[in-house]
């Protein structure tokens, strides 16, 4: 116990530049420069990609997480309350990025995760040889990190761009994913 008191009083008298640690009864000292030489991985801002909402408050054409994927609700039905408790809500949703269909059944009083979904229009300025889009936002910032979507939308985008049409691409962002989900002719330039 005397040794513990001596170490404690020694810790109180240390200068700012060095540190003392007591690890399993052994005294370890180190200089400030040695202690600060650590590398920490950076993460996201800490903002959640989803928020909870009671199942009974969800609506058709809204968004919900089904099987871990952000989906748009296309069908919803509620069963009557049974003798053992809650009414159940049956939901059918379409993945907003892959168009895959998901279903889930949840008690109406339980919470479900709802994804934060951001929708933004960009003016298409170019398509690279390797299939990346050059998109310009309203404030003039350029981004070149999205590929031409697959399927009919991608084919339509390429042919309209090749025919000289001025296009706006609608980009949907949710849960760390982004993709072009729609396009339209830019009528703002006609005015």
Automatic annotation (TrEMBL):
Translation initiation factor 5A C-terminal domain sequence ranges: 116-184
Compartment annotation: Cytoplasm
Coiled-coil positions: none
Record-linked Gene3D superfamilies: 2.30.30.30, Nucleic acid-binding proteins
InterPro entries attached to this UniProt entry: IF5A-like, IF5A-like_N, IF5A_C, NA-bd_OB-fold, Rib_uL2_dom2, Trans_elong_IF5A_hypusine_site, Translation_prot_SH3-like_sf
SUPFAM superfamilies named among the record's database cross-references: Nucleic acid-binding proteins, Translation proteins SH3-like domain
CDD domains, A to Z: S1_eIF5A
Top-level taxon in the UniProt lineage: Eukaryota
Any one cellular-component term (Gene Ontology): cytoplasm
Similarity field: Belongs to the eIF-5A family.
Name recorded for this polypeptide: Eukaryotic translation initiation factor 5A
Organism: Ceratitis capitata
Lineage, top ranks: Eukaryota, Metazoa, Ecdysozoa, Arthropoda, Hexapoda
Gene that encodes the chain: IF5A
């Amino acid at each position: 116990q005397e040794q513990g008191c001596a170490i404690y009083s020694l810790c109180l008298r240390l200068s700012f530049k060095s540190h003392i640690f007591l690890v399993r009864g052994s005294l370890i000292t180190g200089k400030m420069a040695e202690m600060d030489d650590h590398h920490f991985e950076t993460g996201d801002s800490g903002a959640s990609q989803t928020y909870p909402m009671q199942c009974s408050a969800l609506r058709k054409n809204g968004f919900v997480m089904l099987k871990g994927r952000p989906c748009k609700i296309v069908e919803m039905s509620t069963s009557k309350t049974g003798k053992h408790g809650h009414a159940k809500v049956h939901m059918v949703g379409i993945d907003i990025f892959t168009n895959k269909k998901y279903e889930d059944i949840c008690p109406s009083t339980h919470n479900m995760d709802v994804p934060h979904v951001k929708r933004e229009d960009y003016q298409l300025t170019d398509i690279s040889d390797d299939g990346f889009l050059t998109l310009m936002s309203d404030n003039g910032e350029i981004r070149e990190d999205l590929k031409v979507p697959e399927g009919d939308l991608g084919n339509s985008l390429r042919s309209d761009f090749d025919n000289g049409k001025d296009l706006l691409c609608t980009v949907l962002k949710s849960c760390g994913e982004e993709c072009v989900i729609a396009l339209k002719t830019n009528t703002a330039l006609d005015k």
